[in-house]
Amino acid sequence: MTLLATDPLAERHFTCLTCRYDLYGIPDDRLCPECGRPAAESRRAQAHFFDPIALATCRRGLVLLIWTTGLSLLSIGICFTWGVMVSGEKHFEMLLIAAML
What we know:
Layout: H1 39-47, H2 52-87, H3 92-100
């Protein structure tokens, strides 16, 4: 993967995967000056983090995870409250365990 001046990845700061050395300005055909790992290998491994489609997919997954966690907690709270109101008992621990099942 040869980076050209018009390539947006050429202006990004990538770090070596082995030693975390900043590879800015080091061509792909060269090795990391600190550890000798190929610079192209580190850039290829990190390039997907800057992909807008990958970022949008991660964002969508995170939003979905937050929503499902919130809905799960809400449903546990509703079941717990409904169990307390229906039974009229004060055994909150048992009702909470039953609501989680």
